[in-house]
Write a structure and sequence with these properties.
29% of the residues lie in helices and 25% in strands.
Length: 536
């Protein structure tokens, strides 16, 4: 067996190694049902991915397909997906759609669905349940189609299937490392209620909290007494994390690939149960780490407007940034630049990636709204999102060593527009004034003007030396200013268009005169190399 993919380091200094070499997953997540058919993958998905310069694809693998009968496993689909990825020279992050997917239990096998006594579901209750707006009304029924995390029989059955899957991946793929990372479940939690209000869950809720939780938080009593208004969410987070720890440990005993859990984020109105209650949102990560130490990291699915804040929030306390889902719009490119430039992200993956060059997303607007995804982000329109992302992935992959060294030496600085006009970045000898320009601005522009359909501004600056740096990004105007106490003026020695190829700068035009006077990154991703000098 060759050395399996592994993580080394902590926080933004974490590196994913594949075949013993650093690997950044320039990826995309396909639609939920795409990988259920090898024929569909061949005819629709793989042709759509080839223009994108990806090196990895994130795709579901389904419990209902892996174990159609209890104790009877079928890995035909898994093997086919791995074989196809090898043919395409692509790595895989598998999403284990097991017990829980988007706050529901819809991907469990039929033999689980039809035994609701053994595999019991969450029961609604509490005032917050009435406020949850994402689930259809179900008459007088108080049951949610979400198997309770307190159901030990259910998560033990999931763990047996997941263990069998990891054993098979080890046997089928450990020599080639096509599968590099596993996501365990998907957007875990319960929708439509703040917690499970079944009789059994109530008895546990009003019992003494576990000793490890009491010691970690310095609280005592039952969950309501210990955590007050947030008790329901802490209670569910504890039990989901406990279940996941069992599943992950079973899988890692067979094949210890890096494994993570993703999160559906808090969204307006921030009422637990309106977003999945118990998932690893930022405020619950401390509890998740306590209860599920075998999980390697936690990953945000980012469909909210404050993308930059979410990245910063998840890239804390040693958690590396890994983005398995983000909007597949023009903004994906500046989002990528920020994630890589600011946090040395391990992965970046727009959702529904097979649609970026398609004429229509095929996505149902009502379903998207239920998931708090803006339908306009996946609308049928002539969007530059696909070509932009393809170019950005090409740029990042060709300068990965340069980026890695810059992070190691603290010489990379990122920027991303989020409700402000620009940013001042301090370098060793200069200030960089970044003005967010929307469509890229013009020489005569006095004030930035946002243009419809153009990406937000975003990018990064790498200091090659005190006087020389590379700027990568979109929708930005760059000005180089002297330090306030310097007493010198700043001049431009040389300005080049260009790109990195195999981590070596290859210049295009040398820009001077009027074209050297102001430094603009337009709405399509590009790079400039600037060399400055100071004079009195």
């Amino acid at each position: 067996m060759s050395k399996i993919p592994y993580l080394e380091g902590k926080g933004k200094n974490t590196t994913l190694y594949v075949d013993g070499k650093p690997f950044v997953a320039l990826s995309g997540e396909i639609h939920n049902s795409s990988s259920s058919s090898l024929e569909y993958m061949d005819n629709v998905v793989w042709p759509a991915l080839r223009p994108l310069n990806m090196n990895c694809v994130i795709m579901p693998v389904y419990w209902e397909c892996v174990e159609p009968e209890e104790g009877v496993f079928d890995f035909t689909l898994v093997d086919g997906l791995i074989d196809q990825a090898r043919r395409e020279n692509m790595r895989i992050v598998f999403l284990w759609f097991g017990l829980w997917k988007n706050g529901m239990s819809t991907y469990v096998p039929g033999w689980v669905k039809n035994d609701s006594k053994k595999y019991f579901r969450v029961r609604k209750g509490g005032s917050q349940a009435a406020s949850a707006r994402l689930l259809p009304e179900s008459g007088s029924s108080a049951v949610i189609d979400c198997i309770s995390p307190l159901c030990v029989a259910a998560y033990e059955a999931d763990a047996r299937a997941y263990r069998a899957l990891m054993r098979h991946i080890r046997e089928y793929d450990s020599e080639q490392n096509t599968v590099i990372v596993m996501q365990v479940e998907n957007e875990i939690g319960v929708l439509g209620s703040s917690r499970d209000y079944s009789d059994y869950a109530n008895s546990v809720f009003y019992s003494e909290i576990p000793p490890e939780v009491s010691a970690e938080y310095g609280v005592k009593g039952n969950w309501a007494e210990a955590f007050g208004i947030d008790a329901d969410e802490y209670f569910m987070a504890y039990h989901y994390a406990k279940a996941i720890e069992h599943i992950v440990k079973e899988g890692k005993e067979e094949y210890p690939l890096p494994m993570y859990v993703n999160a559906w984020l808090e969204q307006f109105p921030e009422i637990t149960g309106n977003y999945p209650s118990g998932g690893p949102i930022a405020k619950m990560m401390r509890l998740w780490r306590l209860v599920a130490p075998s999980v390697d990291f936690y990953a945000p699915d980012i469909y909210v407007d404050n993308y930059r804040d979410v990245c910063d929030e998840y890239a804390t306390d040693g958690n590396p940034l890994f983005i398995p889902e983000v909007r597949s719009t023009e903004d994906a490119t500046p989002f990528l630049f920020y994630a890589i430039g600011q946090h040395n992200a391990l992965c970046f993956a727009p959702f529904g990636i097979e649609d970026l060059f398609a004429s229509s997303s095929g996505a149902n607007a009502e379903v998207l709204q239920m998931l708090n995804i803006d339908p306009a982000s996946m609308a049928d329109r002539k969007s530059p999102a696909g070509p932009m992302l393809a170019k950005a992935y090409q740029m990042i992959s060709n300068m990965s060593e340069v980026i890695r060294d810059a992070h190691k030496n603290g010489k990379i600085h990122a920027f991303l527009e989020q409700n402000e006009s620009g940013k001042i970045i301090e370098l060793e000898k200069y200030y960089i004034k970044v003005t967010y320009t929307g469509a890229g601005g013009s020489f005569f522009m006095r004030q930035p003007q946002k243009q419809p359909g153009t990406p937000v501004a975003g990018g990064f600056i790498i200091e090659l030396s005190p006087d020389e740096f590379v700027v990568v990004g979109v929708s930005s105007r760059i000005e180089v200013l002297p330090k306030l106490d310097d007493g010198c003026a700043v001049g431009l020695e040389r300005k080049e268009e260009g790109q990195y190829i195999d981590n070596k700068w290859v210049r295009g035009r040398i820009l001077n005169g009027d074209e050297g006077y102001i430094h603009i990154l337009g709405s399509f991703p590009s790079a400039l190399k600037l060399k400055m000098f100071r004079y009195e």
